[in-house]
Write a sequence for this structure.
């Protein structure tokens, strides 16, 4: 992700990582699957 000048994106990135690391492996996989789904939907090829 691209960091903004005020560091907001960095805070979001770290928050997501912190929460992800607290989840069991199966739920981490679900998060990854959802991120990949969103990437297909919103990030141009």
């Amino acid at each position: 992700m691209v960091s903004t000048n005020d560091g907001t994106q960095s805070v979001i990135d770290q928050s997501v990582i912190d929460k992800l690391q607290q989840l069991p492996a199966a739920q981490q996989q679900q998060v990854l699957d959802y991120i990949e789904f969103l990437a297909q939907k919103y990030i141009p090829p």
